[in-house]
Design a protein that fits this description.
The chain has 219 residues and is mainly β. It is 14% helix and 47% strand. It is globular and about 50 Å long.
Length: 219
């Protein structure tokens, strides 16, 4: 079981919770020009990579690890969890019709639903398919009434099914824009999530993101 490989890391859980929580901004509405501009820019790219740390608590267990998320296109991504010295705990590879999971003890599993596959092998209930949008700060498929939008044009909170997703803090990242003709590529400053908390009843996930790398896109 993957869980046995990372139980020694459980005492490091939720380092984010020990930090001072930033003061929440005033909220605004869906049609706010700042949010609409930010939302449209988030929709322009589908290929990106982020690195950080994930902490998970269940009523019967808790653990944390480093992670890398590499998104190639919608519903096609790789999610790797690893230890402080680079040892891989597991690698989840998701495609539209197949998900595979490889563990540190050379076990290989596959299935159609990525969340169910990960849960069945590890016992970790991580909504990875939904997180494709959430980690970008996107509310795709969610009713406007279930959102809180910050006054600076970023998401503050999402409520979806029995999940509550809070965007605690943002960091500055560079969005590369392909140039036309003789114009070279340029970059636009973009606020991307730095710290995210996902709560589903007694289950909690904390994501602390160290870095973002976004592929070149059209404007």
């Amino acid at each position: 079981m993957i869980k046995n490989l990372v139980i020694t890391a459980s005492l490091i859980l939720f380092l984010a919770a020990c930090e001072t929580t930033p003061v929440k901004q005033e909220t605004t509405v869906w049609d706010d020009p700042l949010w609409q501009k930010h939302y449209k820019r988030l929709k322009t790219f589908e290929t990106y990579q982020l690195k950080g740390r994930i902490g998970i608590t269940h009523p019967e267990d808790s653990f944390s690890s480093n992670f890398i998320w590499q998104q190639q296109e919608p519903n096609r991504f790789t999610f790797r969890m690893y230890g402080a010295f680079g040892q891989t705990y597991m690698i989840l590879k998701v495609q539209p019709n197949l998900s595979t999971l490889d563990t540190a003890d050379d076990e290989h599993y596959q299935g159609y639903d990525a969340r169910e596959l990960l849960y069945g092998v590890s016992g970790w209930n991580i909504p990875v398919s939904l997180m494709q949008d959430w980690i970008k700060g996107l509310p795709t498929g969610i009713n406007k009434s279930d959102l809180l939008i910050n006054a600076d044009g970023t998401l503050q909170q999402i409520k979806y099914l029995d999940y509550v997703v809070s965007f605690v803090r943002y960091q500055d990242a560079e969005l590369p824009i392909a140039g036309n003709g003789t114009d070279g590529d340029k970059t636009i400053n973009l606020k991307m999530p730095d710290k995210i908390r996902i709560v589903q009843g007694p289950n909690k996930i904390a994501l602390s993101i160290r870095s973002w790398e976004i592929a070149v896109s059209g404007d």
